[in-house]
Design brief:
Oligomer: heterodimer
Shape of chain A: globular
Largest sheet of chain A: none
Strand order of the largest sheet of chain B: 2-3-1-4
Order of helices and strands of chain A: HHHHHHHHHHHHHH
Radius of gyration of chain A: 20 Å
Number of helices of chain A: 14
CATH superfamily of chain A: Ammonium transporter AmtB like domains
Structural class of chain A: mainly alpha
Distance between the termini of chain B: 11 Å
CATH topology of chain B: Alpha-Beta Plaits
Helix content of chain B: 10-25%
Strand content of chain B: 25-35%
Number of domains of chain A: 1
Radius of gyration of chain B: 15 Å
Number of helices of chain B: 3
Chain lengths: ~425, ~110
């Protein structure tokens, strides 16, 4: 009688987590961003998030998963995988891959990772919002997934990746791969495209949407972080708990900062704080304990608030919905904080500065730098390619009329009926 | 005293306000309305998706002015709202017999501000 390596509890949790992470993109992020935009552009935001889900889902099963997690060959091995798993050939529905979820079917791990690949380009939408043509968004997403996301995912998470395997960087659920990556891409696109016509601030047309979106993000993020344990066990539980704790601390912290510095705590501020906390705890979620998570949460809002309220206005870049201010900054803090607060007691694979392993902090910084540089350069090249072929920015008249009408011939809200 | 009513394309509102402020016209009321002109909205497709049959979204401005401000106001609205395309809108000028400021009870030209 052979033992079946598949564990029902682990599989159920991983599949559930995949669905939770999907909900983070649609409707979570879609509403969070959509509510922050101007009314005339809300559908363009919803459409871009929704179509990220659709486009990346297809690309992922065709070649994305293979490039990100497949074993690379030759001198490219640490940077990108091969196409051995094209169309999921060799990716089993019944047997696990011992490196990627030893107790769940390989395709369960694959579909879980798919949702990470979906949300990362959707995050970038927040930076170039309200001024990009829809065909340009589609082309950008396809190129960015292929040449920026898949290599970075490979470098940090695959078994032969440069940052994760060779250097020993710790990123439990995607502080570098998802958040720093998306945030940096956001900054690059914002700088490349320039400011929107006539404004530099979010329109904030529907704050209830922002709250609903943030709440769905918080809810779904348990799949993002606790699901990254790829098992229904103590580590997943720990990740769940620290995720909630850090997020709560960050929401309080942002509200406090706003109260003291801007006069009143706002719903958008509290929601932004929560999201910042979720971002920061992401790489640390499987390595830190509750004490560490409180530090991470309370401090991320300080850093992100400063970026959003002081640095952005001073430099004047139009990162419309603060993907750089929140995701890059929060992701960077989270990646470095993992190097500070990781403790062996939580996860024997990770030990940080305060656990007697000061070198981890430097490793984290190296991985963060690699992500920022690869993403920065790659995104800039992709912007050039898209712009020189089909043009990236909408015409001024299209932008002023609103992208909903000009790009989609659609209106979000009616007046009479 | 006159009441200037203008129906304009919603996306020209920012430009119109800019021109009005530049002409020293600082008091304004803005509302969202539905409507169409002779072409029944046919040529405006991408600037106004139809709703309720064939009505398109517009913005209505109401500005009460003293006589010497009528022409500057009209010029400012036209400068901000004109694109040369069908659907630019219309301006109506109505006689305004009385105007009262609620806070102080002032009447007439003083109340118009």
């Amino acid at each position: 009688m052979g033992t079946n390596p598949i564990n029902a509890g682990d599989t159920a949790w991983v599949l559930t987590s995949a669905a939770l992470v999907l909900a983070m993109t649609a409707p979570g992020l879609a509403l969070f961003y959509g509510g922050m935009a101007r009314r005339k552009n809300v559908l363009s935001i919803l459409m871009q998030c929704f179509m990220c889900l659709a486009i990346v889902s297809v690309l992922w099963v065709v070649y994305g998963y293979s490039l990100a997690f497949g074993k690379g060959s030759g001198f490219l091995e640490p940077y990108i995988g091969g196409l051995q798993w094209f169309m999921l050939k060799g990716v089993s529905i019944s047997a696990p891959n011992p490196d990627y979820g030893a107790t769940v079917p390989h395709q369960a791990y694959m579909i879980f990772q798919c949702m990470f690949a979906v949300i990362t380009p959707a995050l970038v939408v927040g930076s170039f919002a309200e001024r990009v043509k829809f065909p340009a968004f589609v082309l950008f997403t396809v190129l960015w997934l292929t040449f920026v996301y898949c290599p970075i995912a490979h470098m940090v998470w695959s078994t032969d990746g440069l940052a994760g395997h060779t250097w020993g960087a710790l990123d439990f659920a995607g502080g570098t791969v998802v958040h720093m990556n998306a945030g940096m891409a956001g900054l690059i696109t914002a700088l490349y495209l320039g400011r929107r016509v006539g404004t530099n601030k979010p329109g904030m047309h529907n704050v209830p949407f922002v709250m609903i979106g943030a709440s769905l993000l918080w809810f779904g993020w348990f799949g993002f972080n606790a699901g990254s344990a790829v098992a229904a066990n103590g580590l997943a539980t720990s990740a769940f708990v620290v995720t909630n704790t850090a997020t709560a601390a960050a929401a309080i912290s942002w509200a406090l900062m706003e109260w003291v510095l801007a006069g009143k705590p706002t719903m958008v501020g509290a929601a932004s704080g929560a999201v910042a906390g979720l971002v920061a705890i992401t790489p640390a979620s499987g390595f830190v304990d509750v004490g560490g998570s409180l530090w991470i949460g309370f401090l991320v809002s300080v850093f992100c608030y400063i970026m959003v309220a002081y640095v952005k206005p001073k430099f004047g870049y139009d990162d419309t919905l603060d993907a750089f201010g929140v995701h890059f900054t929060g992701g960077l803090w989270g990646a470095l904080a993992t190097g500070l607060f990781a403790v062996k007691a939580i996860n024997p694979n990770g030990s940080g500065f305060f656990d007697g392993n000061p070198g981890q902090l430097l490793t984290q910084a190296k991985a963060a730098l690699l992500t920022a540089v690869w993403c920065g350069v790659g995104t800039w090249i992709i912007c050039l390619v898209v712009d020189k072929t089909i043009g990236m920015r909408a015409t001024q008249e299209d932008e002023v009329s609103g992208l909903d009408l000009s790009q989609h011939h659609e209106r979000a809200y009616t007046i009479l009926d | 005293m006159k009441l200037v009513i203008a129906i304009i394309q919603p996306y020209r509102l920012d430009e119109v306000k800019k021109e009005l402020y530049a002409a020293q016209v600082n008091l304004i009321t803005v509302s969202e309305v539905l409507g169409h002109g002779r072409q029944v909205g046919v040529d405006e497709f991408y600037r106004g998706v139809k709703e309720t049959g064939n009505l398109l979204r517009k913005v209505r401005l109401e500005i009460a002015v003293n006589e010497d401000f009528v022409e500057p106001t009209v010029k400012a609205i036209i400068k901000g709202a004109r694109t040369g395309k069908i659907g630019d809108g219309k301006i109506f000028i109505m006689d305004l017999p009385r105007c009262i400021r609620i806070r102080t009870g002032e009447e007439g030209s003083k109340a118009i501000g």
